[in-house]
Specification:
About 30% of the residues lie in helices and about 20% in strands. The protein is of the alpha/beta class and about 300 residues long. Strands 3-2-1-4-10-6-11 form a seven-stranded mixed beta sheet, with helices on both faces. The chain has a three-stranded antiparallel beta sheet with strand order 7-8-9, with no helix packed on it. The radius of gyration is 28 Å and the shape is globular.
């Protein structure tokens, strides 16, 4: 009996020693530091990146994506916050997007400043007023605001070495965008184009494509324009913007509906355009307009006991 117990003890002894050694090593190991929270890839929680400061570096697959810069002119009106909310909800789902929001105002408004602070998006908030003489009906709109966005973009990148992958497009705050559109535009080499829905008095307008090249325009208004396209219907490579520092939206001599052509003539030709959206046969952006708000019953003086931002 004793010999049997002794033999079993010898069999178990190595395993007991191994368990003791493992426990001793584990107890002497230093605790791991707590993981820092991941950032939002730009300004979030109220901060706005200063002009010229690059966004925080990202790691993983998103880091290889070109940044999409969206320039959005905006102006004060009853539906402004509603329009910006809808647009932000779309942008929030797009990887590597930097929003350049430009107010038509002499100073940043409190409403838009609070909105930007809570949007949770990489966003640069600018402002520039439209001169009163250019606010007459029939004159091009948002010229100064788009040019301010272009100036900020060039200033931010002028001292950075090439290549600087990125894509710029002009995102008016009353349009509706499919997420697929951002996938299409991100591969822009120079200037890419696609159809726009609900514009020009038609269900859609689009570039006409043959053998992968733009050869004309399906449009309801002035098909003789050099680039008969809506502002929502094209994107430009960041390298093109940087290599054409004088390309801006013009005031003098520019007619309504000609801003797109006047701008694109400075940076490309029709032959160089890159058709997207299945050779310009899919509508991925709509020129929607919010119904004019009826405020006939709004009191002249504030009567409510609380002041609610709308």
């Amino acid at each position: 009996m004793k010999s049997l117990l002794f033999s079993r003890f010898l069999l178990l002894l190595p395993w007991v020693l191994i368990v003791i050694i493992v426990l001793d090593i584990d107890s002497s190991r230093a605790p791991l530091p707590a993981l820092a929270p991941r950032g939002g890839g730009g300004s979030s929680g109220g901060s706005r990146p200063a002009a010229g400061r690059p966004p925080p570096e990202r790691r993983g697959p998103e880091a290889a994506l070109p940044t999409i810069y969206a320039i959005t002119p905006t102006y004060s009106r009853p539906v402004q916050k509603a329009e910006l909310t809808r647009l932000a909800n779309t942008f929030r789902q797009v990887a590597r997007l930097h929003w350049i929001l430009v107010e038509d105002a002499a100073a940043r408004s409190e409403l838009v400043s609070r909105f930007v602070a809570a949007a949770g998006l990489p966003c640069t908030h600018l402002h520039v007023p439209t001169p009163r003489r250019y606010k007459r009906p029939g004159l091009p709109r948002a010229t100064e605001q788009r040019n301010a966005g272009l100036a900020w973009l060039r200033q931010r990148h002028q001292h950075l070495p090439p290549p600087q992958p990125g894509v710029l497009f002009f995102a008016d705050d009353d349009n509706t965008y499919s997420l697929e559109l951002f996938q299409e535009m991100r591969t822009t080499r120079k200037v890419s184009v696609w159809p726009v829905g609900l514009v020009g008095g038609r269900r859609y307008e689009r570039p006409l494509v043959e053998d992968g090249k733009v050869v004309g325009w399906y449009t309801g208004w002035r098909a003789d324009r050099p680039f008969a396209i809506d502002m929502a219907g094209f994107a430009v490579s960041l390298q093109v913007i940087l290599s054409h520092p004088k390309a801006v939206f013009k005031r003098r001599g520019s007619q309504p509906g000609m801003q797109e052509s006047d701008f694109l003539k400075q940076i490309t030709t029709v032959e160089e355009l890159e058709p997207k959206a299945n050779n310009c046969t899919k509508v991925l952006v709509w020129h929607t307009r919010t119904e004019k708000v009826n405020l006939a019953n709004e009191p002249k003086y504030h009567l409510d006991t609380v002041n609610i931002e709308v």
